[in-house]
Amino acid sequence: MIGPVYVVTDPNAPLPQRDQAMAAARGGAWAVQIRDKSAPDVEVARLADALLADLAPMGVRVFVNDRVEVARATGADLHIGQGDGDPLRARDRIKPDALLGLSIETVAQCARIPEGVDYIGAGPFRATATKPDAAAPMGAEGLARIVAAASVPTIAIGGLTSGDIATLKQAGAVGMAVVSAVTRAADPEAATLALLNTWRQP
Question: Are 193 and 25 in contact (CB under 8 A)?
């Protein structure tokens, strides 16, 4: 269900978000997430509908960030942060077969992961320009503590590159979520494939 490489779109990257997502999917990402804090719901929903049509035949999941009602209306998967409302309510609002991800920044938050959350996004691993309001970086030791405390699989996020993969795997993460490493690469498809191939190395 959850694979190694999860790509989050960036509305400020050189390529349009749909093109970013398509390139990531062709490169082997198991999921893409639409994250656009300023776009209206109708625009996010339109993009989600387009990507669901594009990517479902490829077996690639489409997430929306924070927008519970957009996920409900389109059938997309949903990822929410600590300040985005009650995960249980979100679970009830989205489709029964949709996946739900929850951002986790501290070990203490792991004790409050409710039933119905399918994975956590643990981060930031390091400081990142794509999310200036993020919590303090947790590094490898912090990530390992969260993996040990969490009741569901952990995906690491926050300024990650291929050079971090061995550390993430050692900490127990099942995958990595990336933004700039793919969306700002000269060839986003090739960048995604390179991450995937590096993760698969023993």
Answer: no
What DSSP letter does each residue of 107-133 carry, written as one string?
HHHHTT--TT--EEEE--SS--TT-TT
For the question of residue 103 being annotated catalytic, the response is yes
Type and span of the H or E element at 61: strand 61-65
Candidates 38, 103, 162, 200; catalytic one: 103
Question: Catalytic residue at 131?
Answer: yes
Q: Has this prediction a pTM greater than 0.85?
A: yes
Domains of the chain (ranges, CATH numbers) = 5-200 (3.20.20.70)
Where do runs of H (alpha helix) occur along the chain? 17-26, 41-55, 68-74, 87-93, 107-110, 139-149, 165-171, 180-183, 188-200
Q: Is 9 exposed, middle or buried (0-12, 13-18, 19+ CB in 10 A)?
A: buried
Kindly name the residue from 18, 26, 35, 112 that is annotated as catalytic: 35
Per-residue pLDDT of the chain (202 residues; tens, 9 = 90+): 899 999 999 999 999 999 999 999 999 999 999 999 999 999 999 999 999 999 999 999 999 999 999 999 999 999 999 999 999 999 999 999 999 999 999 999 999 999 999 999 999 999 877 666 667 899 999 999 999 999 999 999 999 999 999 999 999 999 999 999 999 999 999 999 999 999 999 8
β-sheet bridge partners, residue 103: 121
The one catalytic residue in 72, 131, 151, 200 is: 131
Tell me how many degrees the CA angle 115-62-38 measures, rounded to the nearest 5.
Answer: 95
